Here is the input.
Amino acid sequence: MPTVSKEDYIKAIYNTKNSGNGTATTSGIAEKLDVSKAATSEMVQKLSDLGLVDYEKYKGMSLTSEGERVALQILRRHRIWEMFLIEVLGLSWSEVHDEAERLEHSTSDFLIDKIEEFLGFPKFDPHGSPIPNKNFELPDAPLIYSLNEVSIGFSYKISRVLDKSNELMKYFTKIGVALHKEVFVKEILSFDGSVVIQIDGNEITISQKTAGYIFVCMPEGGAIG
Amino acid sequence: MPTVSKEDYIKAIYNTKNSGNGTATTSGIAEKLDVSKAATSEMVQKLSDLGLVDYEKYKGMSLTSEGERVALQILRRHRIWEMFLIEVLGLSWSEVHDEAERLEHSTSDFLIDKIEEFLGFPKFDPHGSPIPNKNFELPDAPLIYSLNEVSIGFSYKISRVLDKSNELMKYFTKIGVALHKEVFVKEILSFDGSVVIQIDGNEITISQKTAGYIFVCMPEGGAIG
DNA sequence: GTACAAATTTAGGTATTCCTAACTTAATAA
DNA sequence: TTATTAAGTTAGGAATACCTAAATTTGTAC
Ligand SMILES: [Mn+2]
Ligand SMILES: [Mn+2]
Ligand SMILES: [Mn+2]
Ligand SMILES: [Mn+2]
Here is the structure.
């Protein structure tokens, strides 16, 4: 029902809440969507009038349950498209996000259901992100940890990466970061938080910021001790 | 480059020129796109300023060669999507057009090329319409005739239908009209131009208007005598 | 050739979504 | 607490794509 713009705002609010910072701020959403704070402030008030966002002036914003439903619907479309583009058409990790960013607004639920069926009802997308089901419910996800909060001297399995940008995805591909691969954490540099890992036999140093975009679990799926 | 609206206007002008009436009029485009004549008049002037349409006030409109290039690009996207939706996802003839009508504006040429490759570079879409290639050139098409201009007492092969609406497609499916099927033309009623055909062993009467949306060629591809 | 009707364009407005600049509120630091 | 700055909002305006109602142009019928 919402327009392309509204859908992108709602998704941005959802993603902010459910990853990292926690609170969605006017400035944060404006930056994420590359629009002015003024435009964001106006739009948030419109979304509030529509009952999709809880909002009090100067106090911050959060999705209503209806807004969250819409967010999950869009995430479902986005992630199913990314899955399709990679699994069926063979696009690369760095090519899918921008396509999905547009397709997510032009696809009926009917069509998304068909694609999901064609793909065999996957629970996670090619970045390891959970795909909401037909009823917009998220699958149970195993406990995962970012590479920043992990114990030194152990091996882990990469279970999710955040597709923040094409460039990041290209970088991941280049250094060998891919889903289900094993990484050994050698060291975390005390002075800047960089994480030194071993992957495919190569030793690689990843900045703290980028390490925060890589999530891992225990190789056998057990809890991290 | 053009917006969704502009793309749909350009496509409407192209389709009017290349099927039936010939000349694109303000009223005709307005009706086809379900907008006011005023909106159409304004938009045509804008498209003229953009160099996509040749236009002189009160005199009518036609696409420039650049406009035609854009039209073929959009037709290419539309038809490849329809092919994909039917061949790969198994949607029905009546379900694909509306989806393609939206997807055609949200798909990069890069992605369309990938889908085309996945489909094996088809030359015609599921309605028998030609698919422009990567360079926006139409394939050579065999001579075809509408069911209105065909000789009585002969058999033909259905080689193209115009997907004017979902309802028309459902009707075609219901009465057995499908690509590559054989029809025997029994009679054309003198008083209203209805065409009486035999298809799948059933005798069916089709109105003159609807017959104009069905195109056939000789069963072996020869010329119609 | 005029008068009328149909087709088309223009005038004046609305709704979206965005902008910059100005203003207001909240947070912080001395 | 108070000054300063950061964050957020409002004011005023632009671009797009529509609309209805009022011209205007064109073509046709007498
Ligand atoms: Mn993505
Ligand atoms: Mn998007
Ligand atoms: Mn179609
Ligand atoms: Mn369209």
